[in-house]
Design goal:
By secondary structure, this protein is an alpha+beta fold. It has three domains: 167 residues, no CATH class; 81 residues, Pdz3 Domain (Roll); 87 residues, Pdz3 Domain (Roll), CATH 2.30.42. It is 44% helix and 21% strand. The protein is built from twelve helices and 16 strands. A four-stranded antiparallel beta sheet has the order 5-4-6-7. A hairpin with a 5-residue loop joins strand 4 and strand 5. Helix 1 packs across helix 9, helix 2 crosses helix 8 and helix 8 packs across helix 10. The two termini are 22 Å apart. Keywords: Hydrolase, Membrane, Metal-binding, Metalloprotease, Protease, Transmembrane, Transmembrane helix, Zinc.
Length: 454
């Protein structure tokens, strides 16, 4: 229920904001607005405020919306109102009305990111867990317990890193743009600072899937190797393990963080002898024999699992990340700009085959993330809204027929040639745009279902 409500709130807020941008700009340009609809299809609720010429509607299908304006191309218009038709507005005003929707979504993203910065968010400190063996992080010299103080993408300016989430964003950005990431660390085992470089430029990482993250080697912040939920019928249950058990050692090797324990379990995928676990439970020390189960993972490779959550958000050191009014706004603008640029770059790479189309997400993934973020609290949900609002703004600016960006391309043609796109051309382009949009939606839904099944 939380997932469904969070999804409806997300779509409702973002569509309303988008269409409100079109609506307010149309009114400012003197265009008569006939209907403001949230949702598509059959109207469920409709009303007309006193003195308003616009009908407001909530429709049955909560996937989109529209602003219907007076337009001679869509029906007969009385002589005395023709000057208020959208088609009679100067080119600059028509373009401004179309552009206002996506821009309003981008402005909302800035405000939401800024609000999260001002409010403050509890986040994991950027203290690194044991890197994956033979990974880029391991070869670069990162060790268990190192704290990241600052990071710079390639030769860009270094910026202070206050949380693991900030580090993850910089890591993703550098990997997807194929640029090195320079980290300033406070080592766990020695005083002072050290600087290391993650050579992501030569790693040829196309997608941030599980395999790519393993190659990079930085998977999670350092967390206590304590067990959480136990899956019924799993190896953990068969061994008698319980939630709250603290794993001290495996086969005589001390376990200092959750990621180290995960790697120890995964190392048994090639062979499956029982492991001797030294655990602490209710102040007592116990020795337990655990035999991880070998199962087929992604790509058919065998992986080892015990069927228990290892480490959780409550098992690592946290900090509250909060910024003042000016810095919070600056970071909100910067995050919006960086994410918009990265989104466009990724779309370009998918177009030329340099990135997988599996990066596309659809309504199922959005609903899942909406529910998860809402369950974590208001700040996390606002952050999620900012990301989706930004994505909606950027995608609507793509030069595809039926999207706002496609209409802007029509107006660019008109500005260059001095005449509008011929009606016959526009009809053909609209059909092609609808077909392409349906294809992309089908692909995104297919990706969603694939993730869900995995």
């Amino acid at each position: 229920m939380v997932t469904v409500l969070a999804f409806l709130v997300t779509i409702g807020v973002l569509v309303t904001v988008h269409e409100w941008g079109h609506y307010r700009m149309a009114k400012a340009c003197g265009v008569k607005v006939l209907r403001f609809s949230i949702g598509m299809g059959k109207p469920l609720v409709r009303w007309r405020p006193s003195g308003s010429e616009t009908e407001f509607v909530v429709a049955a299908l909560p996937l989109g919306g529209y602003v219907q304006m007076l337009d001679e191309r869509e029906g007969q218009v009385a002589e005395h109102e023709r000057h208020r038709g959208f088609n009679r507005r100067p080119l600059a005003q028509r373009a401004a009305i179309v552009l206002a929707g996506p821009l309003t979504n981008l402005v909302l993203a800035v405000l939401l990111f800024s609000a999260v910065n001002w409010w403050g968010m509890s986040a994991a400190q950027p203290v690194l867990a044991t890197p994956v063996p033979d990974s880029l992080a391991a070869h670069a010299g990162i060790a268990q317990g190192d704290m990241v103080l600052a990071a710079a993408v390639d030769d860009g300016p270094a910026q202070r890193v206050q949380s693991f989430e900030e580090l993850r964003w910089l890591l993703n950005r550098a990997a997807l743009t194929q640029r090195d990431l320079v980290l300033t660390l406070q080592p766990a085992q020695q005083p002072g600072e050290k600087t290391i470089t993650l050579p992501l430029a030569q790693a040829d990482i196309r997608d941030l899937d599980a395999a790519a993250l393993q190659r990079i080697g930085i998977l999670a912040p350092m967390a206590t190797p304590v067990l959480g939920e136990i899956v019924p019928g799993s190896a953990a249950e068969a061994a008698g393990l319980r939630p709250g058990d603290l794993v001290r050692a495996v086969d005589g090797v001390p376990m200092r963080d959750a990621q180290q324990l995960v790697q120890r379990i995964q190392a048994s995928a090639e062979h499956d002898p029982p492991q001797q676990w030294l655990i602490e439970r209710d102040g007592a020390t116990l020795t337990v024999q655990v035999t991880p189960q070998r199962v087929a993972g992604e790509g058919g490779a065998m992986v080892a699992r015990i069927g228990a959550r290892i480490g959780s958000s409550g098992d690592y050191a946290t900090t509250t990340v909060r910024y003042g009014p000016i810095e919070g706004l600056q970071r909100g603008v910067a995050r919006t700009w960086e994410m918009a640029a990265l989104t466009l770059r990724m779309l370009g790479r998918m177009l030329v085959g340099q990135a997988s189309l599996e990066n596309l997400s659809g309504p199922v993934s959005i609903a899942q993330y909406a529910g998860q973020s809402a369950s974590l609290g208001m700040v996390q949900f606002l952050h999620f809204l900012a990301v989706i609002s930004l994505s909606l703004g950027v995608l609507n600016l793509l030069p595809l027929p039926v999207l706002d960006g496609g209409h802007l391309m029509y107006y660019l043609w008109e500005a260059v040639t001095g005449r509008p796109v011929p009606q016959q051309w526009m009809e053909q382009l609209q059909r092609a745009g609808v077909a392409l949009l349906l294809l992309l939606m089908t692909l995104a839904l297919f990706n969603d279902l694939g993730r869900l099944l995995r």
